[in-house]
Design brief:
Number of helices: 9
Strand content: under 5%
Shape: globular
CATH architecture of the largest domain: Orthogonal Bundle
Order of helices and strands: HHHHHHHHH
Number of domains: 2
Largest sheet: none
Structural class: mainly alpha
Length: 185
């Protein structure tokens, strides 16, 4: 119902679809946003592409799967731009940006620093991956999507997705082990 109304140009129906599917969009862009690009910007661009592409949505797949695909393409486009320009934020700048939010008042400072370093290590290791592998890892491990759904989103055969995930895990392990990162996350 909401989809048909939004496809007919009903802005309120589209707003409702965005509200319903915001967690799907946010989950993808938050985990795959390249450094230097705010996830909020990628979220907005995904919503714009969603609006522009909605009239062509045929319903062959679930709307959420289609939205994953839209967000995936937006993120890949920006990852490729960042990779071409070589933009990177320094680890120190990210620490100063306030990534240290203690979970409770009893968390010690060294434990916070250790968690930040572990999170930074994983994010840095993810950046070492090919952008497509990075997106697949995000879909599978952070979004909980299965191989078939990732295949549908990315347009890759399921066996290719399995191979890419296997290679991505091996590369992540290699990068993390070589970096001598903290083990506590």
């Amino acid at each position: 119902m909401w989809i048909r109304k939004a496809q007919a140009g009903d802005a309120r129906a589209f707003q409702r679809l965005v509200e319903l599917h915001a967690p799907v969009i946010w989950g993808v862009v938050h985990r795959t946003a390249p450094r230097g690009i705010a996830p909020e910007d990628l979220f907005q661009e995904t919503v714009i592409r969603f609006w522009k592409g909605l009239p062509s949505f045929q319903g062959d797949s679930k709307l959420s799967t289609w939205l994953y695909s839209v967000a995936y393409r937006v993120c890949l486009d920006h990852i490729e731009k960042v990779d071409r320009r070589g933009e990177q934020d320094s680890l120190e700048a990210r620490r100063e940006a306030g990534t240290a939010d203690p979970e409770d008042e009893f968390t010690g400072g060294s434990r916070i620093v250790s968690r930040i370093e572990a999170r930074d290590a994983v994010e840095k290791a993810l950046e070492a991956l090919d952008p497509e592998w990075r997106a697949m890892v995000t879909f599978h491990y952070w979004q909980g999507l299965g191989i078939e759904e990732i295949a549908e989103i990315t347009g890759r055969p399921a066996n290719t997705v399995k191979v890419y995930l296997h290679r991505a895990r091996a590369k992540l392990r290699e990068v993390l082990e070589a970096g001598n990162w903290p083990e506590e996350a």
